[in-house]
Amino acid sequence: MIHRRALLAGAAAFPAARALAQGAPGIAQRLDDAPSPGIKRDLLIQWGDRVAYDAPPFAPLSPSLAAAEGQFGWDTRVVAALASPRVEDGIPRAVLAVGHPSLDPAMAFPDGRDRPEIAGAMQGASLLNIQRRGGIWLVTEGGFQMRRLHARTLCRMGGAGGPARGVFGVTGGCATPWGSLLLTEGEGAAWARRLPGVEAAQAGHVVEIDPFEPQSVPVKRTALGGLGARDVAAAQAADGRAVVFLADGREGGLLWRFISDGPAAEPHALDQGALYAARFEAGMLRWIALPADAEPYAAAVARGANSLGRPVALALDPNGARLCLALRESARNPAGAVVEILFAARNPAADTAIVESLIEGRLPPRPRAGREPALVPAWPVAPTSICLDSQGNLLLGTAQPARDSPLPDALYVLPVEGPARGQPSLAYAVPIGAALGGVATVPGAAAWVAGVAHPGAGIGAQFATPRSRWPHFRDGEPPRGGVVALSQGG
Fold it and tell me: What is the 3-state secondary structure (H, E, C) of the chain?
């Protein structure tokens, strides 16, 4: 039995957010985003902003391949914020990884017609240098680690594989304890069908990259199963081996684990190891080892692996004893849930774990036809991105499948310990049509970064007639998803 560690209850870095938990505020859909009282919002970057130093200015009426390959992508999924190499000037800095999973032609192109080659350049991932100056978080102009990964990025297949081209549909990822960055190609299969010349076998992998070396070649780690995982979390076993957890994202999907044969610090650690699938039963989890040469999903089901719902996001706590799993829909709740997995002996490589519910989603009441948008209770629905901070809080972002919901998608904070365990407080609501596109904590700083994905989208929305023109609300300019930094002082 695992004894819980006493962590700080409540959003210690954001006392205003903790106070909100006492009042269960009501919220409604709106054109603009809405930080909660006491939280300051800085816009870091948006679709079309320069990532590569030579990228041209944003020109949405005349999109081009060359421009798209150097600019921030259309869709947004914050993946991770990594501590920058130490600089002795006292300025808080980080390397931010952001995925670009998808692209809706109706919202991205003036005529609504798909342009697959340009679309392939607008997806993938961006690596950004960010810093705080004058009390404001911003992207560092010309930062050393700044780079774009897209459909024409040169990659390598893991193991004995040769060269490959393209990073596709990044829906999640994580920083690893051994210093690399993992990206999941959760929408890779869709892009393989959409883009001419893309081999399906080269999409849908976990991509490993050195985030601090802009000339490094991304490697697709085929030993992790090619599952098209939506998200991934990485830990290190007591004996130094790499432990990687994967949420496969499909309806009725499984939770997976990979353990390397050798130490995580070896350059090719993720090319050889064993794949496992989870079996849940009566508040417990047991890992089932899978044959090396079998099709993973069929082998897992045949050996008794089962599902809790639709697993879409993972988060490991900083000390590695707890894994949280977000279910966009669960087997018993269409509004989704988050569960905790507590490792036996605090060992992520252990054969068993305890499973406990942390929070259950709640569907909002439906408004009456013809009524103005009404306040609805602020409570998570469809948790789709999660992150554990060092203060004992889970940061939870939502992305509801129904675009006509009366409840805006949002970022919530909930303690994982203490009397307020599992009680969410609203921190930040995104504009109408948008989803909360991932969240991460900034290392060494009391700040979060969160994604605003596809603002203004929804039934009937198009490039010229979006539901919102966030963030600038300029006539003739389409809405632009992006990334915001959230800190105290709003």
Answer: CCCCCCCCCCCCCCHHHHHHCCCCCEECCCCCCEECCCEEEEEEEECCCECCCCCCCCCCCCCCHHHHCCECCCCCEEEEEEECCCCCCCCCEEEEEEEECCCCHHHHCCCCCCCHHHHHHHCEEEEEEEEEECCEEEECCCCCCCEEECCCCEEEECCCCCEEECCCCCCEEEECCCCCEEEECCCHHHHHHHCCCCCHHHCCCEEEECCCCCCCCCEECHHHCCCCCCEEEEEECCCCEEEEEEECCCCCECEEEEEEEEECCCCCHHHCEEEEEEEEECCEEEEEECCCCCCHHHHHHHCCCCCCEEEEEEEECCCCCEEEEEEEEECCCCCCEEEEEEEHHHCCCCCEEEEEEEEECCCCCCCCCCCCCCCEECCCCCEEEEEECCCCEEEEEECCCCCCCCCCCEEEEEECCCCCCCCCEEEEECCCCCEEEEEEECCCCCEEEEEEECCCCCCCCCCCCCCCCCCCCCCCCCCCCEEEEEEECC
Q: How far apart are CA 463 and CA 262, in angstroms?
A: 50
- Rounded-to-integer distance, Cα 440 and Cα 306, Å: 29
Question: What is the distance between the alpha carbons of residues 209 and 149, in angstroms, rounded to a whole number?
Answer: 11
- In degrees and rounded to multiples of 5, residue 189 shows phi and psi of -65, -40
| CB within 8 Å of 295: residues ≥ 6 apart | none
CA separation for the pair 113, 182 (Å, rounded):
33
The C-alpha atoms of residue 56 and residue 46 are separated, in whole angstroms, by 14
> Cα dist. 19→16, 252, 422 in Å?
5, 37, 15
**Closest-CA residue to 428 (of 488, 486, 469):** 486
Residue with tokens 């300029």: 474
Residue 396 has pLDDT above 70, yes or no: yes
What is the Cα–Cα distance from 120 to 235, expressed in whole angstroms?
32
Look up residue 218 and give its amino acid: P
Predicted local confidence at residue 475, as pLDDT: 94
CB atoms within 10 A of CB 142: 10
Per-residue pLDDT tens for 148-192?
999 999 999 998 889 999 999 999 999 999 999 999 999 999 999
pLDDT tens string 44-85: 999 999 999 999 999 999 999 999 999 999 999 999 999 987
Structure tokens at 74: 């259309």
User: What is the rounded CA–CA span in Å between residue 75 and residue 103?
Assistant: 6
Q: What is the pLDDT of residues 246-264, one digit of tens each?
A: 999 999 999 999 999 999 9
Phi, psi of 19 (to 5 degrees): -65, -35
> Computed over its alpha carbons, how large is the radius of gyration of the chain?
21
For residue 471, say if its preceding peptide bond is cis, omega within 30 degrees of 0. Answer: yes
